[in-house]
Automatic annotation (TrEMBL):
Coiled coil: none annotated. InterPro entries: PEGA, SH3-like_bac-type. Pfam families: PEGA, SH3_3. PANTHER family: S-LAYER-LIKE PROTEIN (PTHR36194:SF1). PROSITE patterns: SH3B. It comes from the Bacteria. This is SH3b domain-containing protein. The lineage of its organism: Bacteria, Candidatus Woykeibacteriota.
Amino acid sequence: MRKLLSAIAVSSVFLVICFFLIRFILQLITPTNGFLTVSSSLPKSQVSLDSKQVGNSPYQGENLKVGTYKLKLEGKFATASSKFFSGRTVSWSNQINVGSNTLTVVNIDFGPTDPFNAVETLSLRRGTTSLSLATQPRGAKVDLDSKNFGESPLAKEAKAGVHRITLSKDGYLTRQLDINIPEGYQTVIQVTLSANPLPKTNGKLSTKAALNLYNLSSSLGSLLEKPDLWAEGVWFFQEKSPSLETKFDALIDFNGKAYYYDKAAFKTSLNSNLALNVGYLGKLSDKGLTAEAQTAWDLLVPATKITQVEILPTPTGILNVRDGPSQTNKVLTTIKPGEKYELTAEQSGWYKIKVGATEGWISSQYAKKL
């Protein structure tokens, strides 16, 4: 989880703009026309201007009349790209302005639903070499080449050349943009940040059998207004970020609704007493679970008898209890043959047991279930 929180969502599609290649094209455009490029994280997304399809991404529009257009992109997740979202069609639309003899660049990094789309719009206008930047939401911290540049919105003079911009704000995914600021041009950028569906965990709320309940509470209205979309965001970014330290098998929201990434697999793992993680989608202002969420949590695990294990004879007469399922993990304590303990989780070759207030792992070779 911490890796996600400290990780940076890099816009791989929003590439460094090579101004000197564009300049030749701009010189061919009459002063009353503009130039537009559109790119998307989903290949061959359909591009429409004022409800008229004009091509697919990556799209280049030349000799566009100056004015305001309704730009729409519609893409589809690849059939084999996701367990949850394969084949889903997603779309985004907004108004853009095409200025006289101006280059406008639009890039969208699609999420499963609107709160998780990240969008960048860039335009070049003749003037003082500078950078103007606005974000949605406002108040994002702006770093230019790893140095603090201010808070959005801002407008400052900047050196010409290639730069890396990093945008960060609590509750949103940090974003990086690699841009080229050309000499004698004002670079204007507008960025919509993606909501972070996996905010910094506020700790473990509860443990029951092999289930761990983590607090993922947020204060973002876009998540709290539609918890079902919040859950989709969790599944989406889990698939997109395979290096996450903590992944969730189920979620419970503050209304008491439960969501499963794979309900059948969840039940199978639960019946096998395998460790499972559940996330609580709550309001940051609340203290712990709501009554509805507590009921859902209680119902998540049917009432069953506690499984115990009995320790078998060992060559040394004791058995190590470790802080992880490996011979290299730290020894927490030792136990003796004949003793019985509550089994809380298991995985290949290892049992997790409760020893007083401590939980640890023992080799299943020297224990049997009762």
